[in-house]
Amino acid sequence: MSLNIHSHLQGISAFVHAVETGSFTAAAARMGVSKSATGKSVARLEERLGIRLLDRTTRSLNLTVEGRAYYQSCLKVLEELNAAETLLASRKRVVSGTLRINLPISFGRLFVMPVLKEVAEKNPDLNFDITFTDRQVDLVEEGIDLVVRLGDPGDHASLIGRRIGTQRSIICAAPAYLDRRGRPASVDELGNHDCLAFAKDSRPLPWAVCGPDGTVRAFVIQPRHTISHGEALRDATVNGLGLAYLSTWLATDDLRSGRLEVVPIATPAEDVPITALWPRSRDLAPKVRVVVDALVEAFRPIAVADARP
């Protein structure tokens, strides 16, 4: 009987992964098995059920009508199993297993990695599988347990989010650049300066500035240079290439040392949220909770710090 149960669950798992990834090759990579083993598991499942679940072509997999209904049932079964396991783990208070985390490139390296190092040292049975990207990933499709997101976290019914802090940004430049080109006091003067833009998805992001009445607006700059890496943008600013709109967590050390100077153009005290997101099915998992709690605690001093020297 146990062998049959194992075979059934193996077939269901292969089927769900194949649907979510769109191919047997990607499903096999996620499961850590061969492509042929994945295909055979789904084929045995279809044979046992007596129905075709997937229409196969050389380029894609498509759910049949029966397959779509069965897929929804499988999701419920797997979610119940996962919830039962995480509940038991929560009661045992054991932080173990592998946590798959996706992080923004600069913020993840500079801020999150030191926190993860401390968490790993305190939890020897916990392993991390960490990826870095500034694009918005799909946690369910890409098999990620936890993501840290800068800006709008999005509205996803399948995810749970917790704000770990708020990012503040300021307009700044190297003192040598400002001595040479002048210190702008309003956005109207920015047109006379070399502005450096951070690019996301190949598009320069606007700067959030405050008007005389305190209202916040997105100011679309005409950048001289566009840079898609946060630390490279900071380096370019420190080296006098122009003005930049930098996050305080990225610029604070340079502001304190005098390598950068804040430009007297008002920016909002709170720019964008910094959020941790995870699938609802991982809600009670200790490995998720311990990392999120550590991030919230670690970010508090930076969230309220004024980066102005």
From TrEMBL:
This is HTH-type transcriptional regulator TtuA. Residues 9-64 form the HTH lysR-type domain. Transcriptional regulator of the ttuABCDE tartrate utilization operon. Keywords: DNA-binding, Transcription, Transcription regulation. GO terms for molecular function: DNA binding; DNA-binding transcription factor activity. Belongs to the LysR transcriptional regulatory family. The keyword Ribonucleoprotein does not apply. The keyword DNA-binding applies. The lineage of its organism: Bacteria, Pseudomonadati, Pseudomonadota, Alphaproteobacteria, Hyphomicrobiales.
